[in-house]
Amino acid sequence: MAGLFVFWTNSGARVPEGLRLSPNRGKFALMDGTQAAAIHQALVAVQHAVTSMTFPSCDQEDLIEAIDSVEEQLHTGHPNVALMCRLLNSIARSLRAQPEARDACLTIEDAIGKAGMPSTWQSGI
User: Fold this and answer.
1) Residues 85, 111: contact at Cβ < 8 Å?
2) 44-71 b/e with 16+ CB inside 10 Å = b?
3) DSSP letter, residue 77
4) Residues 114, 35 contacting (CB under 8 angstroms)
C-alpha cells in the first residue's frame, strides 16, 4: 500500500484514509444507493470486458469470482467496504495491461472514487 494513509481504530484495525468509520466499533458507514449503483455498473462493464477478451479461463474465472464477491457485498445489509475496495482495485490491477479492458478499468476508477474508496490499482505503473 505505497502512499496510502491509514488510520487505526480503537480495536487496532487499520483503515485506509478515505473510508469512513461509523461511531460503532470501527464498522464502515453504509454506502448510499448512488455509490452502490456506480459499483454495480462498473462490475457489469468489467464482466462484459472479461467475457469478450481472449483471456486464460482460470484468470477469467478468478475475475468473475471477484465480481461475484463484490456483488454479494453490495446486497448485504452491512457491506464490507474494505473488502470491496480491495477486490475492485485487484480487478482493475488484473485488467490494466489489457487494452480492451481500459474502459472497464476507468469505470472502476470512477466508481471507487464516488464511493470514497482509495484507488490503488494504478500504483507501480
Assistant:
1) no
2) ebbbebbeebebeeeeeeebeebbebbe
3) S
4) yes
90 residue type, one letter: S
> Which sequence spans correspond to the domains of the chain?
31-114
CA nearest to 88, candidates 27, 12, 36: 36
CA angle 93, 82, 86 (to 5 degrees): 10
pLDDT in tens, the chain (125 residues): 333 333 334 444 444 444 444 333 333 455 788 999 999 999 999 999 988 888 788 889 999 999 999 999 999 988 999 999 999 999 999 999 999 899 999 999 999 999 999 999 998 76
pTM of the model: 0.74
The amino acid at 63 = L
Residue with cell 462493464: 45
